[in-house]
């Protein structure tokens, strides 16, 4: 009976064989020039997990200048954008068919170590001279395995294969030293926990708890990149729990652990933190395929689901009779979400979209208690704008009640709203609601020049359009003249 490690080796052999021709040829090029070359990191780990990659990472004894010269001969294109860190990239265009029919992209890095200057937010690069030394400076043992080329010799000095079989994240060297060299590795522990579903080794976890504050020296852009990768994983909950449980979230996303102290206003959840993680999972389950309205993975929807209730700590009030309220937490939450995402250097559009979804996530509540007018439905669609499909999913995901009857009632009510939206869309082009008269027509009818009065008239006509649906040009002109006369 084979061991888990032996099964992983067999799986890796099949994957490496499929990617081997280009990799072996590159290894022969480096060997002929007197240099070592090894496939390292993620591609090796993924091979053991049965995943093939056309983007390959290599480590070499060659200097960056030597590597650049060799890749220029091997590839059809090459670039030196990472040369200061010892990395040269190259692309070889597709040759043949099947697995060998895709472009191959490689990055080759000189043996190295990354260390932080205590006074700097950027790593200092120092080049090494051995493969084992280079692997010792990797983040985790599962990423510290290599395959020497061109002979395909497996190298595993830190027992990463055993950890891979156990589903464990452990640092190759003492975790305190590893995280001191590069504090971002603590974020990567959370990210790989999400991406791979692995547990973090107890000693490694303790070091993160003790050193969480050191993440503050890492730039916001690098922290954001790791957080984004975590959130875009198939099951990000485990990684987020690592962030919160270790104290890392206190430094990079403090709004999330703050939710642990809150009691959900409906008293149906242990705390709002757990509710938010559940909402995230339910939102992910509603993402669509590549041709659907919200293709997976969707960063905006996931951020909005995670942050939709961050305004609750600041708005919590204890009511007479033992109740708890969070009035206007959606408005406060939108501001808090925007502030945090800006601090993490997210793109402006991401910040705008996420904060808007947080602001709108409660708008649907009350729909089931009394019929909305067509005007209310139009405003719901108009306010959501291009975020409507995401808002549909966020609103549905926000229902985490264990009361099946109430859950079904909420679902049915939202289905009814969606059907009304579709009916109005078919009648009125509801996705692009505009007044029956445009600015030019308004100026012609009223005999006025461009200015604030044109905008006021446009807004008045838009309100009528929302309230009554399409008016037609004749009635719109009558309403416009009546409004203008009343102003005069």
TrEMBL record:
UniProt keyword annotations, A-Z: Magnesium, Metal-binding, Nucleotide-binding, Nucleotidyltransferase, Transferase, tRNA processing
Cofactor: Mg(2+)
Enzyme Commission number, as recorded: 2.7.7.72
Pfam entry (one): PolyA_pol_RNAbd
Presence of the UniProt keyword Cytoplasm in the record: no
GO annotation terms (biological process): tRNA processing
SMART domains, per the entry: HDc
Domain HD: residue ranges: 272-424
Top-level taxon of origin: Bacteria
Gene3D superfamilies documented for this protein: Beta Polymerase, domain 2 (3.30.460.10), cca-adding enzyme, domain 2 (1.10.3090.10)
InterPro entries for the chain: Bact_CCA-adding_enz_type3_sf, HD/PDEase_dom, HD_domain, HDIG_dom, NT_sf, PolA_pol_head_dom, PolyA_RNA-bd, tRNA_adenylyltransferase
Class in the EC hierarchy, top level: transferase
GO molecular function: CCA tRNA nucleotidyltransferase activity; metal ion binding; nucleotide binding; tRNA binding
NCBIfam families: HDIG, tRNA_CCA_actino
Stated name of the protein: CCA tRNA nucleotidyltransferase
């Amino acid at each position: 009976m084979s061991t888990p490690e032996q099964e992983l080796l067999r799986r890796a052999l099949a994957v490496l064989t499929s990617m081997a021709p280009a990799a072996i040829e590159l290894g022969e090029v480096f060997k002929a020039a007197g240099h070592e070359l090894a496939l390292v990191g993620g591609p090796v780990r993924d091979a053991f997990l049965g995943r093939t990659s056309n983007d390959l990472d290599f480590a070499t004894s060659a200097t960056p200048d030597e590597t650049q010269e060799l890749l220029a001969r091997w590839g059809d294109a090459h670039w030196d954008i990472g040369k200061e860190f010892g990395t040269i990239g190259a692309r070889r265009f597709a040759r043949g068919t099947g697995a060998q029919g895709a472009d191959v992209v490689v990055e080759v890095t000189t043996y190295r170590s990354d260390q932080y200057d205590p006074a700097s937010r950027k790593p200092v690069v120092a080049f090494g001279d051995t493969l084992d030394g280079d692997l010792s400076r990797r983040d985790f043992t599962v990423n510290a395995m290599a395959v020497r080329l061109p002979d395909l010799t497996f190298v595993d000095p830190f027992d990463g294969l055993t950890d891979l079989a156990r589903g464990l994240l452990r640092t190759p060297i003492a975790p305190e030293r590893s995280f001191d060299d590069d504090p971002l590795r603590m974020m990567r522990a959370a990210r790989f926990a999400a991406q791979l579903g692995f547990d973090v080794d107890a000693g490694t976890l303790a070091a993160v708890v003790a050193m969480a504050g050191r993440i503050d020296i890492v730039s916001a852009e690098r922290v954001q990149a790791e957080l984004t990768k975590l959130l875009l994983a198939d099951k990000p909950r485990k990684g987020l729990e690592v962030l919160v449980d270790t104290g890392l979230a206190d430094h990079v996303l403090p709004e999330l652990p703050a939710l642990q102290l809150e009691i959900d206003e409906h008293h149906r959840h242990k705390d709002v933190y757990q509710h938010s993680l559940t909402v995230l999972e339910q939102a992910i389950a509603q993402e669509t395929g590549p041709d659907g309205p919200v293709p997976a993975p969707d960063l905006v929807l996931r951020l909005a689901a995670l942050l939709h209730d961050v305004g609750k700590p600041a708005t919590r009030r204890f009511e007479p009779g033992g109740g708890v309220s969070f009035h206007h937490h959606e408005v406060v939450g939108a501001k808090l979400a925007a502030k945090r995402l800006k601090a993490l250097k997210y793109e402006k559009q991401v910040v705008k979209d996420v904060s808007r979804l947080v602001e709108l996530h409660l708008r649907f509540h009350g729909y089931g208690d009394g019929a909305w007018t067509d005007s209310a439905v139009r405003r719901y669609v108009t306010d959501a704008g291009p975020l409507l499909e995401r808002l549909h999913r966020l609103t549905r995901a926000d229902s985490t009640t264990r009361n099946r009857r109430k859950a079904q009632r909420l679902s049915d009510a939202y289905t009814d709203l969606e059907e009304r939206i579709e009916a109005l869309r078919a009648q009125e082009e509801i996705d692009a609601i505009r007044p029956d008269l445009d600015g030019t027509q308004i100026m012609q009818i009223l005999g006025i020049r461009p200015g604030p009065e044109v905008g006021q008239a446009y807004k008045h006509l838009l309100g009528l359009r929302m309230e009554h649906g399409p008016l037609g040009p004749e009635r719109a002109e009558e309403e416009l003249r009546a409004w203008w006369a009343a102003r005069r």
